[in-house]
Amino acid sequence: MASLNSIQDFLSQKHIAVAGVSRKKQKFGNAIYKELKNKGYTLYPINPHMDEYDGTPCYHSIDDLPEEVSGIVINTKNEVTLKLLEQARSKGIKHIWLQQGCANKDSLAAIESNGSNIISKQCIMMFANPVGGIHGFHRWIKKSFGKFPN
């Protein structure tokens, strides 16, 4: 489990890419993007099939991102996630959040941190303060049952 310090370190990044934004409004990558944007982060949407997302230029790959991007939230299918992890490492992005469900057990086992801050098996929406709504309730449940990172 990721430590609270590693989670806070990730959330201290001000320039974060979000891989997994979509034209389909109900996709969770879109909710992550909008929530983090509302909390003041400078975001860089990534989708190889889109030129623009929410009024912002959409990057087709991690290689296209500007140098100031120091973190990435990945919310894609496992086969895409593995490619994005390789690209993030080659780009020098050290702060990587693998949203729940984007990586399977085998791919998680294959990940070597190489000095990176990799967070998995956690929902970013439960940690990007202020946390409210259903994510605040989930956070409270995790704390109540001792499942919240320390």
How does the SSE layout of this entry go?
Elements: H1 4-11, E1 15-19, H2 28-38, E2 42-46, E3 52-53, E4 56-57, E5 71-74, H3 78-91, E6 95-99, H4 105-110, E7 117-122, H5 133-144
Parallel strand pairs: 1-2, 1-5, 5-6, 6-7
Antiparallel strand pairs: 3-4
Top keywords for this entry?
Rossmann fold; 150 residues; two-stranded antiparallel ribbon; 5-stranded parallel beta sheet; alpha/beta
Task: Please provide a written account of the structure.
With 150 residues, the protein is of the alpha/beta class. The protein has a single domain, classed as 3-Layer(aba) Sandwich (Rossmann fold), CATH 3.40.50.720. The chain has five helices and seven strands, in the order αβαββββαβαβα. The strands form two sheets. Strands 2-1-5-6-7 form a five-stranded parallel sheet, with helices on both faces. A two-stranded antiparallel sheet has the order 3-4. Helix 3 links the parallel strand 5 and strand 6. The protein is globular and about 45 Å long. It starts with a helix and ends in a 6-residue tail after the last helix. The mean pLDDT is 92.
Q: Remind me, CATH topology?
A: Rossmann fold
Proportion of strand residues: 15-25%
Distance between the ends: 9 Å
The CATH architecture classification is 3-Layer(aba) Sandwich
The number of helices is 5
Determine the fraction of residues in helical runs and give it as a percent range: 25-40%
The parts where pLDDT drops under 50 for at least 5 residues are none
Listing every helix as H and every strand as E from the N terminus to the C terminus, the arrangement reads HEHEEEEHEHEH
Strand order of the largest sheet: 2-1-5-6-7
Radius of gyration: 15 Å
Q: Please identify which CATH superfamily we are dealing with.
A: NAD(P)-binding Rossmann-like Domain
